[in-house]
Amino acid sequence: MRNKEYSRRKFISKCIGSSSIFMAGGALIFSSCDSNKSNPADKKQTSATNFCDDLSNVSKSELEKRKTFAYVDRSPLPDRSCGNCALFVPKTDNQSCGECMLFKGPVRAAGHCIQWASKEQP
Asked: Domain map of the chain by residue range?
């Protein structure tokens, strides 16, 4: 058997070098998996999900209102959702999101807030 002298410094530098190579390779693989970045034509299409999640045009004060009213995307109460609330304004273009009279921004029909109001029956 050969007796080789290994130093702790060489061992640690080899470990750090190897791990950084694996991490860089993993980052490249994961960044290439995102198909939305690679195809600009997909960004032009506005699906119902993207519309509902887009809060980029909503001011900070309106975002605070959403928090104050405890708005959530899915109602914990099955019979009290935004879709059957008197304050909900549905979109006309068959989107799954509408708006609320209390705050700005997209509101899901399945959502809920603490200001839910029953629609009056005619």
From this structure: 8-35, 47-108
